């Protein structure tokens, strides 16, 4: 199953240009922002830190996209909606789960 990519300009629009007021999480490899799709659905936008863009980081990102394409929450929702691999940006967009981390579904954490 293929997931379409999206432009950085669209992601900036959905997150208020990665506004601090939309930041909902931080991690060693990047930050997570809350965003809103035009039809009203809320999304989580995971943006890889620029410092993580080594060859290994780029390979890890590609592998994460591949793994997430096949993941589903229950049997209903595909967790990865889209991604951005533009210039130096590596971004994953997934379903927003209030008070939950995607790691719970990805790694059982």
Automatic annotation (TrEMBL):
<dbReference type="InterPro" id="IPR017441">
    <property type="entry name" value="Protein_kinase_ATP_BS"/>
</dbReference>
<dbReference type="GO" id="GO:0004672">
    <property type="term" value="F:protein kinase activity"/>
</dbReference>
<dbReference type="InterPro" id="IPR011009">
    <property type="entry name" value="Kinase-like_dom_sf"/>
</dbReference>
<dbReference type="InterPro" id="IPR001245">
    <property type="entry name" value="Ser-Thr/Tyr_kinase_cat_dom"/>
</dbReference>
<feature type="domain" description="Protein kinase">
    <location>
        <begin position="18"/>
        <end position="109"/>
    </location>
</feature>
<feature type="binding site">
    <location>
        <position position="46"/>
    </location>
    <ligand>
        <name>ATP</name>
    </ligand>
</feature>
<dbReference type="GO" id="GO:0005524">
    <property type="term" value="F:ATP binding"/>
</dbReference>
<dbReference type="Pfam" id="PF07714">
    <property type="entry name" value="PK_Tyr_Ser-Thr"/>
</dbReference>
<keyword id="KW-0067">ATP-binding</keyword>
<keyword id="KW-0547">Nucleotide-binding</keyword>
<protein>
    <recommendedName>
        <fullName>Protein kinase domain-containing protein</fullName>
    </recommendedName>
</protein>
<dbReference type="InterPro" id="IPR000719">
    <property type="entry name" value="Prot_kinase_dom"/>
</dbReference>
